[in-house]
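#struct-help
A.M.: can someone run this one for me? Single chain, 85 residues.
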Amino acid sequence: MGSRAGTVVDALLDTGFDGDICRPTQLAIQLGLELRDMIWVELADGTLKDELVFAGVVVWEGRDREAMITLTESQEALLGTGLLA
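D.P.: on it. Structure tokens below:
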């Protein structure tokens, strides 16, 4: 959830992703997410890329939880191991 809206999505658990959540870029504007950072990430194929990181709230196991949301060109939503901690 961001400051403007929320959404429900299906996501894959990616144990190789150590962040919280990875979502498609166009979602940031729709939800009103707050930009927090730009980071370098290493993709599964070894490619290095700049990715934007936004703050948002996730409902996880019935509770609101602040999460860092990495935005990407991929159309698939991913849950990372950071959310499991």
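A.M.: thanks! The two ends are 20 Å apart (CA to CA).
D.P.: also worth noting: The chain has one domain: 12-83.
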